[in-house]
């Protein structure tokens, strides 16, 4: 009798510990955030390998719907062990009309480094070499390596291209650590700014949009215009279903392989949007740094704190933007917000 009571008590205690452990795990690690995985910020390797995405689509589709998506403070508090003298490389994902040009110039002209980037008058690119080397590069960006992986290459393109391109530029295969960074902007303001830019003649027609080793066909990605879209009205700009300005930040941060690249027949639109948003959030969390156009000084502080590097001069906040001076109706603003969901 005593043995049975002892056994019941032991089983009860064991079950209680299991329940307590599960509750503690869910509290400390919501959404399985503590599951062992490669470093959130760093991508290793010199080949074209990508993380294993088995079941990724199913997991993203099963996520509960939420009105707002937020990051925990632990996600935003970045502290990486970047070493400019070793094999670490900062990769800047530059999305259109997010203040990337200004930030990119800060990286090559405003860094307090042992060996500053060498910038020559009249040349768009600067030479950003590691201390004590004559060909090792620490920065992969528009103003250092040029558009080596394509004009405004997105996450999908950069992940497949950067390792091989670095081997080519440094003339040797090497294992490196890649620290991805980007700048974000309030979606409607970014969308209106891109519209005005296209209205003045910008096209980005030479962008390759590589995905899974190939460019999209004309059927998969038709053009909204012939030579250019000069003078386009906002309604026409918004109504074109193939306009890459629509939902640009989400698309350029996501892994397009998860939805069949630019082949929209593989996944219905609602599922495609959810998968892309989930993927973009995941990739953004794993980046070493992302700044916000609307908060220049805070972005500067976060970058300096994350990489333990300093800028020479403080960033300036420019509030009088083209988007802010653009008069639009309430209906047009609503359509722009719907087009730029990120």
Write up what this structure looks like.
This protein is an alpha/beta fold. 38% of the residues lie in helices and 9% in strands. It has helices at 2-28, 56-62, 73-76, 100-109, 155-170, 187-199, 234-239, 248-253, 269-286, 296-307, 330-339, and strands spanning 42-44, 88-93, 111-112, 118-119, 126-127, 139-140, 177-184, 289-292, 310-311. A hairpin with a 6-residue loop joins strand 4 (118-119) and strand 5. It is globular and about 55 Å long.
Key features?
342 residues, two-stranded antiparallel ribbon, 11 helices, 9 strands, alpha/beta, 9% strand
In summary, what is this structure?
The chain is 38% helix and 9% strand.
Radius of gyration equals: 23 Å
Structural class: alpha/beta
N-to-C order of helices and strands: HEHHEHEEEEHEHHHHEHEH
Percent strand: 5-15%
Q: Would you tell me the overall average pLDDT? A: 84
**Number of continuous helical runs:** 11
Total beta-strand segments: 9
The N- to C-terminal Cα distance equals: 65 Å
Q: What does the secondary structure layout of this molecule look like, with pairings?
A:
Layout lengths: L1 H27 L13 E3 L11 H7 L10 H4 L11 E6 L6 H10 L1 E2 L5 E2 L6 E2 L11 E2 L14 H16 L6 E8 L2 H13 L34 H6 L8 H6 L15 H18 L2 E4 L3 H12 L2 E2 L18 H10 L3
Parallel strand pairs: 2-6, 2-7, 7-8
Antiparallel strand pairs: 1-7, 3-9, 4-5
Helix pairs in contact: 6-11
